[in-house]
Design brief:
The chain is an all-alpha fold. Helices cover 77% and strands 0% of the residues. The longest helix has 24 residues.
Length: 77
């Protein structure tokens, strides 16, 4: 049985959302919730699946940073 690597989902989200923001494409404000989801996936991965404290801390930081950005872009903007 082949193991499904959830990190590919977060990688795809990062590429897609990063492209939206970098190119200022329509609906780029919806990239930030995508970043939140991707960092949540990686935070879980680096906490439970493959323990790595520095990467866990990094992903938790960006999770909260992108949560704040989501609030600003979607509700304040």
């Amino acid at each position: 049985m082949k193991y499904f690597d959830i990190k590919w989902v977060s990688t795809t989200l990062f590429i897609f959302c990063g492209t939206l923001v970098a190119l200022k494409l329509p609906y780029m404000q919806y990239a930030f919730p995508g970043f939140v989801i991707a960092h949540g996936i990686l935070a879980h991965h680096f906490h439970k699946v493959h323990p790595n404290k520095p990467l866990l801390i990094q992903n938790i930081y960006f999770f909260f940073l992108n949560t704040a950005a989501s609030y600003v872009w979607l509700f304040k903007g």
